[in-house]
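[INFO] parsing input record for Argininosuccinate lyase
[DEBUG] input buffer:
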Amino acid sequence: MAEDIKDTKSSNQMWGGRFASGPSAIMEEINASIGFDKKLYAQDIRGSKAHATMLAHQGIISVEDKDKILHGLDTILSEIESGNFTFSRKLEDIHMNVEARLAELIGPAAGRLHTARSRNDQVALDFRLWVKEELQKTEAALSGLIAAFLDRAEEHADTVMPGFTHLQTAQPVTFGHHCMAYVEMFGRDRQRVRHAIEHLDESPIGAAALAGTGYDIDRHMTAKALGFREPTRNSIDTVSDRDFALEFLSIASICAVHLSRLAEEIVIWSTPQFGFIRLSDAFSTGSSIMPQKKNPDAAELVRAKTGRINGSLIALLTVMKGLPLAYSKDMQEDKEQVFDAAESLELAIAAMTGMVTDMTIRTDKMKAAAGSGYSTATDLADWLVREAGLPFRDAHHVTGNAVAMAEKKGCDLAELSLEELQSINAAITADVFNVLTVEASVASRKSFGGTAPSEVRKQIAWWRARN
Ligand code: ARG
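[DEBUG] output buffer:
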């Protein structure tokens, strides 16, 4: 320990041991956001260009100064993009880093850019622009995942598999139908994304510190230039609110939960015990000690990313919950949560799209499992209601007796003889065998949204027209 302790003359004796230059260094470390908000450089420059253009248009700054500002900002953009920009922690954040460099490049005209603006509306603008672009990327990624599922569903509209409740075999379904369940979930996620884009599509710039400004600015002009539908209507709300970030995180969390349930199914399906699917080599790994193993690591990691994404939502909800209006520095903690969740979600959707596209469906295994576990028992009961006129409760009881008999004999329902079935209920005829196969069972479930291949094909067509 002792050799780690630096000369603490200039830093606090009690707690400043690790800091070279006293409390101001600690302040800099807790205060600076440049380490992560430099990600907003393009949005910051775009916003500043729109603001400067508006200021000149309104006669608040001169056209010459505006031209210098725009030119300087373009230079900074290319410096950052080519890796030739030195970010400074002393300058705290992306906004001040850009502005300080602008002053170096164009001199006093740089000082006019911040007229009628505050970092409070500036950061609200930059972050909204970033989240909007991220939502647009998420929308496209979800469309890709839906397309992958539609292809697999079409290919396997007739493939039978066991449907489960409580992870116990329930009734036969088609794999196409199961795929389409995920299409519905990701379709709703995409709708949520679209709504969120609508909700945040208002421009914050011009709200200034919190009260608006006395300059004759044109907020409709900047809103239009930045691709927003309109300016925000309340300057206090504009700089206080982060619900667009919370909405992104909520949507991301719900979507991550969907992805995680799918990941869990992939993990289960790819076990030798189930064997419903084989993952491609591209999306699995081997074991360093057990040569026979093929592990679904990508699916497991998608499942785990849900923890991070949900954690980000809780973190930001907690940051925001006690803040008085308007801006407080607490809100600087919004960005890392959103950046991390966005990166995780993008990766998870991409990995899942790859897995769904590449996995091999083992139709033989699915079919064998579909027929086991008395999965057509409900079909027998329904037949008794339909053909023999029994009340459903009685039919349920008769079917229970048939299942017990088959269990005792160690065979399937379809393997019981007609005589055996008739010994349970005399009204049963040979026609019953037409519903005891899994194919007949799924084909009969033609109710709207049901598992019959004909229904599944209708749902696929509905989605194809909307994807
Ligand atoms: N870096 C700050 C943030 O991300 C920018 C806004 C600072 N505003 C202020 N009044 N200190 O929130």
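[INFO] Confidence is low (pLDDT under 50) at residues 1-12.
[INFO] shutting down worker
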